[in-house]
Write a structure and sequence with these properties.
With about 375 residues, this protein is of the alpha+beta class. Helices cover about 45% and strands about 15% of the residues. The protein is globular, with a radius of gyration of 22 Å.
Length: about 375
């Protein structure tokens, strides 16, 4: 893990707390604003707050029709202020695209500024359904070892079908998706912001970003240089495209489920969704035991082995779920099986290379604990 900048961290926390205080203070005005936007004729009433990792939301209900919506704000200190509106705009674009091109349950939404107004989706948090019960809610979540296997298989199959749909969406370049050919970005900056047509160019740029940090120890410095040398080995799958839509935050914590039918009712939080190298979409979900692999392997050899002992049986379970989904659905001629691609990614170590490229704070530990040993 990279060392923290405690001054920046303190400033960010102060900004978060001040924003939350102000938002709570003006909640009646926000309810009135939502009422006015939706033409509810003063029927809007406050329901409750929802706080996520990067956003704060207010649920509002129409007291006449019982229609419910969410207005969601990015939290300053969690999201760079100058990017808040852009982040929201891109997320709404992704959600709209998914509603039009997939069967994935995504809220209908609209962007009116640095916030989203979206339909209220019913269900309980899937992460709460899957995690091991503990007396202390603050305990780090882990998959319940006593979970009903038939129930878990059903959940895995639903998620496998979503991932299969995402893996079939094709794009010529890596980056955010937009409906308009004009991004609103200053033309003079384009020369420093290359468009990635090839996955290997994207990985090379990521490796260069990792090397910009001067204040690192020798071990980290070596790991980052060696990471760049792994691109020809791990970073060339479908190098020239087509590239795929990928959401790094598509995990149970951001999903809702009907606890009676065990049907997933909504996928939420697409703020980290972009067109990315296709090989990201061919990976297993990293969250299969509800733990972050990068953090787990940073605990040394014992932590790595403990993670692998828990993860690998669930890896097999998810791949089998994907195989069942693939057997039910038509496959375009010549398309490799996603289940086979997932297995190859894990067996080859590409899963870890991809994870490291997306998680700069863990790249050093992932390299030394996993990729270095694979030669």
């Amino acid at each position: 893990m990279m060392p923290a900048n405690y001054i920046a961290e303190r400033n960010a926390k102060d900004a978060q707390q001040e924003f939350i205080r102000k938002l709570v203070e003006v909640t009646p005005d926000i309810v009135f604003f939502v009422d006015n936007c939706l033409g509810w004729n003063k029927a809007g009433e406050f329901l409750r707050f929802f706080k996520g990792s990067f956003n704060l939301s207010i649920a509002v209900r129409n007291s006449v029709t019982n229609e419910r919506v969410i207005i969601r704000f990015p939290i300053p200190g969690k999201v760079y202020d100058l990017w808040r509106a852009k982040k929201v705009k891109h997320e709404v674009m992704v959600m709209t695209y998914l509603r039009e091109h997939t069967s994935i349950p995504v809220p209908q939404s609209q962007q009116l500024g640095p916030f989203i107004i979206m339909e209220f989706m019913e269900g309980e948090n899937l992460g709460d359904i899957l995690k091991k019960p503990t007396p202390n809610e603050a305990d780090l979540a882990i998959l319940d070892p006593d979970i009903d296997e038939a129930k878990l298989n059903g959940i895995f199959e639903q998620l496998a079908s979503f991932m299969l749909e995402l893996s079939r969406l094709e794009f010529p370049r890596i980056g955010a998706i937009l409906r308009t050919p004009f991004a609103g970005f200053p033309a003079e900056h384009f020369k420093t912001m290359p468009v990635f047509d090839r996955s290997s160019n994207y990985f090379a740029a990521r490796a260069q970003c990792l090397l910009r940090c001067k204040d690192i120890t020798w071990g980290r410095y070596v790991a980052r240089h060696c990471f760049a040398k792994l691109i020809p080995t791990y970073g060339m799958i479908d190098d020239a495209g087509p590239h795929r839509l990928f959401c790094d935050d598509m995990r149970p914590l951001n999903m809702l489920i009907n606890p009676e039918t065990m049907e997933i009712t909504a996928l939420l939080d697409f703020e980290f969704t972009n067109v990315m190298p296709a090989q990201f979409a061919y990976d297993l979900p990293w969250w299969l035991i509800l733990r972050d692999p990068g953090i787990e392997v940073s605990e040394g050899e014992a932590g790595k082995q403990k993670f692998l002992d828990l993860f690998e049986p669930r890896k097999e379970q998810f791949i089998h779920a994907m195989e069942r989904v693939e057997a039910r659905l038509a496959r375009p001629a010549g398309e490799p099986l996603l289940s086979a691609r997932m297995r190859d990614s894990w067996d080859s170590g590409r899963f870890w290379f991809n994870l490291a490229s997306r998680n700069s704070v863990d790249v050093d530990q992932i390299y030394w604990q996993i990729l270095y040993n694979k030669g």
